[in-house]
Amino acid sequence: MSSTTPRARGERSRGASAALHTALALASLVAVFPVLFVVFVSLRGRDGWQEPTRFVGFDVSNYTHILGHTKFLTWFGNSVIVAVGATVLGVFVAATAGYAVSRMRFPGHRSLMWTFLIVQMFPMAVLIVPLYNILGELELLDSYTGLIVTYCSVSVPFCAWMLKGYFDTIPAEIDEAGRVDGLSPFGTFWRLILPLARPGLAVTAFYSFITAWGEVAFATQFMSSEEHYTLAVGLQTFVGQQKAEWGLMTAAAVLITVPAAAVFFLAQRHLVAGLTAGGTKG
User: Fold this and answer.
1) Which long-range contacts (CB under 8 A, 24 or more apart) does 231-236 make?
2) Membrane-crossing residues (predicted)?
3) Less crowded by CB within 10 Å, the N or C end of the chain?
């Protein structure tokens, strides 16, 4: 009589489990390798990238040069201003639009969301010229305000769709309770609904921040003076017609990822809940 016990339904064999873990390990290695390689090159000095396979000569000269002899800190501050401004304004506009479509029935409320969806389909390259003309007419070229508004035009359509789906999951009885307590529609939205929508707000805030933090095309075209350069524009000064400073580029790339990683870790506990809840209803 065999002493082996039958596996429970859904339980993987040892071979299948080993194959799965091996595949996951390889996928993780493929994902992490480019980041580790950039960090490795950044620690090899100004010309260490020419011999990336040598494991000697590590130093932080690229980082000290970036921080002490370039305008990296100015570019960094400009990027913080633009990214934070685009995040705050974009999330507020998206939240109010998503809540209005979720709770209120007004003429055009369905076409509004479809308009958001259609706008989201246009590639950034198509939008550069019309946005440039609009910002020029409003005298907002080469300004933080113009770039913030531009980034909001990119992030708000997606964020409004996401938050509309999240607001649909919040019981409408909460709004009725707010009206019974004498709150205005905006008071109900601000005091009752937004605290319950923290996961959805975290997702949209993270998306808005990343969109503004790493964007290149709009910043390159709309910011002309060096004191207003963001990181994406400033890093292009390391690449010339005759030579590219890859050591400085990699060091700057590592420093740029730190704020994005910090925002991710602050928002990560809300990301899964916000993404899944936002996709349950259309």
Assistant:
1) 231/72, 231/75, 231/76, 231/78, 231/79, 231/256, 232/79, 233/75, 234/70, 234/71, 234/72, 234/74, 234/75, 235/75
2) 20-43, 80-100, 112-132, 144-163, 244-267
3) N
Amino acid at residue number 126: V
User: 33-42: which pairs have CB atoms within 8 A and are 24 or more residues apart?
Assistant: 35/257, 38/250, 38/253, 38/254, 39/250, 39/254, 41/246, 41/247, 41/250, 42/247, 42/250, 42/251, 42/253, 42/254
On whether the pTM is more than 0.70, the answer is: yes
d(CA 81, CA 254): 20
Model confidence over 93-130: pLDDT tens digits?
999 988 988 888 777 777 887 887 787 788 878 889 99
| Four-residue CA torsion sign, 191, 193, 197, 200 | negative
Provide the 8-state DSSP code for 143: S
CA atoms within 13 A on the CB side of 134: 11
Cα(116)–Cα(159) distance, integer angstroms: 10
What is the C-alpha to C-alpha distance for residues 157 and 114, in angstroms, rounded to an integer? Answer: 9
* Rounded (5°) CA angle 114-119-124: 160
Identify the weakest region by mean pLDDT among 53-67, 82-96, 135-149.
Answer: 53-67
Report the alpha-carbon distance of residue 271 to residue 139 in Å, rounded.
37
142, amino acid identity: D
CA distances from 266 to 199, 223, 275 (A): 12, 30, 16
The Cα–Cα gap between 48 and 73 comes to 24
Q: Are 280 and 165 in contact (CB under 8 A)?
A: yes
Beta bridge partners of 239: 244
- The backbone torsions φ and ψ at residue 239, rounded to the nearest 5 degrees and listed phi first, read -115, 115
**Do residues 141 and 222 touch, judged by C-beta distance below 8 A?**
yes
- Cβ atoms of 270 and 205 closer than 8 Å: no
